[in-house]
């Protein structure tokens, strides 16, 4: 762990006591914050750590608590307890703690223009009031950004206020994505607990160089029907991570409990998804591809993951009558169980969100590897379903693929290498 991270974790750990002591800590007050930082440095580390995290010449202090010390490069630490403080904090601070923030109606939590190198810590419970709109609720952007959750913190999207069983297909207006992420450079999101998002959770778009690790996305409360959902699960289209137009993204060590794709990559390159637990949704997906502003996806690896209680394990879906490219995609070491539709699914016939049964070939799918995909499907499911357009699939390697329990597999394209049998 980098020294900077150690320092920041230590900072998080002292925040609750400071909050209890200081009546003015709820504001963006640099002097208060710098005192906090000084205390932290002393209790947790040495002079060298302090020097590491600063470029100023005022950071050599190692003794008295009465000496103020600037910790963050070119900025100060600020704690935000009300939405009105967010704009000034993001404009001037590089260590921001959002403490029990209640985001009011008709408001987006705007962290889209963070200063380079900023750390934002969600502490306590972050909540969102209902708004009759389709705008996103949290926007995050900037270079070399760290976004993290303090121990025990929760980001609660108040999805219950929007859920009506229809997701983005109809019903009332809903925030299309809960969190839009456009971070670049060397950014990290870590240790966030997110629950009850309205429709899709993350949109990772025009992002690069970003690692997401140690998140829990829990939309299990949306499995039960509610008064508006007509007997269906109240939450719908609740994708965990939608990735588009992004490069060099890692999503790892994360649990997603939801009702749609665990991860869906629709465009971009160099995306690695590993050590996931996907529960209740539609699996680890590419697509749908075609008919969007960007329609090329390449170099995606899904590995070392569990997909359970889900419609699909691994899938690619492309849209009817559109163009695009799907190149060099690998799933390896995926354990599936209780799959209700397709264990492995590659289909080129989507139209208006549903399959037509008639594939088209404008999106090419090439360089697909399925390796060590094992587990069980429900008896009503198919273990494997491949429906390629004429000539649009090539270079598939399926090795050690063994999903059992389903019936009537159907493949109109045979992988070009490996020991796979579609029966
Ligand atoms: C993808 O990763 C490869 C290998 O690490 C690298 O050479 C290439 O530049 C990356 N592509 C992009 C668009 O960053
Ligand atoms: C199988 O998954 C479905 C969701 O697709 C779930 O409703 C059901 O409870 C699961 N069955 C078991 C035995 O876990
Ligand atoms: C196959 O994948 C499972 C996880 O699904 C993993 O535990 C196992 O080690 C893998 N086997 C090989 C030979 O890589």
UniProtKB/TrEMBL annotation:
Catalysed transformations (reactions): (1,4-alpha-D-galacturonosyl)n+m + H2O = (1,4-alpha-D-galacturonosyl)n + (1,4-alpha-D-galacturonosyl)m
Signal peptide residues are: 1-20
Q: Which GO terms describe its molecular function?
A: polygalacturonase activity
Q: Which residues form the active site?
A: 282
Q: GO biological process: any one?
A: cell wall organization
Q: What is its EC number?
A: 3.2.1.15
Keyword Disulfide bond found: yes
What would be one Gene Ontology cellular-component term for the protein? extracellular region
Region entry Disordered: which residue ranges?
A: 44-72
Q: Is Nuclease among the key words of this record?
A: no
Keywords assigned by UniProt, alphabetized: Cell wall biogenesis/degradation, Disulfide bond, Glycoprotein, Glycosidase, Hydrolase, Repeat, Secreted, Signal
- Location in or out of the cell: Secreted
Tell me which Pfam families the record gives: Glyco_hydro_28
**Could you tell me what this protein does?**
Involved in maceration and soft-rotting of plant tissue. Hydrolyzes the 1,4-alpha glycosidic bonds of de-esterified pectate in the smooth region of the plant cell wall.
Q: Which family does it belong to?
A: Belongs to the glycosyl hydrolase 28 family.
Protein name, per record: endo-polygalacturonase
Its lineage opens with:
Eukaryota, Fungi, Dikarya, Basidiomycota, Agaricomycotina
């Amino acid at each position: 762990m980098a020294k900077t991270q150690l320092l920041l974790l230590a900072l998080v750990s002292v925040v609750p006591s400071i909050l209890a002591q200081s009546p003015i800590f709820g504001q963006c007050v640099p002097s208060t914050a710098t005192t906090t930082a000084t205390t932290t440095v002393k209790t947790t580390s040495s002079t060298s750590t302090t020097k590491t995290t600063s470029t100023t010449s005022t950071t050599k202090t190692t003794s008295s608590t009465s000496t103020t010390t600037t910790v963050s490069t070119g900025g100060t630490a600020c704690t935000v307890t009300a939405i009105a403080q967010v704009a000034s904090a993001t404009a001037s601070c590089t260590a921001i703690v959002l403490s029990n923030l209640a985001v009011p109606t008709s408001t987006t939590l705007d962290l889209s223009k963070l200063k380079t190198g900023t750390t934002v810590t969600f502490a306590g419970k972050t909540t969102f009031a209902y708004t009759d709109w389709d705008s996103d609720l949290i926007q995050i952007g900037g270079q070399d950004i760290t976004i993290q959750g303090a121990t025990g913190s929760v980001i609660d999207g108040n999805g219950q206020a929007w859920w009506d069983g229809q997701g983005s297909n109809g019903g009332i207006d809903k925030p299309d994505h809960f969190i839009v992420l456009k971070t670049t450079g060397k950014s990290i999101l870590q240790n966030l607990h997110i629950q009850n998002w309205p429709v899709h959770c993350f949109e990772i778009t025009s992002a690069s160089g970003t690692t997401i690790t140690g998140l829990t996305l829990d939309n299990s409360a949306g499995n039960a029907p509610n008064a508006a959902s007509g007997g269906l699960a109240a939450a719908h289209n609740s994708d965990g991570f939608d990735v588009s137009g992004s490069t060099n993204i890692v999503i790892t060590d994360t649990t997603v409990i939801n009702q749609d794709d665990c991860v869906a990559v629709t465009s971009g390159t160099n995306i690695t998804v590993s050590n996931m637990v996907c529960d209740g949704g539609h699996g680890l997906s590419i697509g749908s591809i075609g008919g969007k502003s960007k329609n090329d996806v390449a170099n995606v690896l899904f590995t070392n993951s569990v997909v359970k209680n889900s419609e699909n394990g691994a899938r690619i879906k492309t849209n009817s009558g559109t163009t695009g490219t799907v190149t060099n995609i690998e799933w390896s070491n995926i354990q599936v169980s209780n799959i209700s539709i397709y264990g492995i699914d590659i289909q080129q016939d989507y139209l208006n969100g549903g399959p037509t049964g008639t594939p088209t070939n404008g999106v090419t799918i090439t360089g697909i590897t399925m390796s060590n995909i094992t587990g069980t499907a429900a008896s009503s499911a198919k273990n494997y379903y491949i429906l390629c357009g004429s000539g649009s699939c090539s270079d598939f390697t399926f090795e050690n693929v063994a999903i059992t329990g389903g019936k009537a597999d159907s493949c109109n394209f045979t992988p070009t290498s490996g020991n796979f049998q579609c029966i």
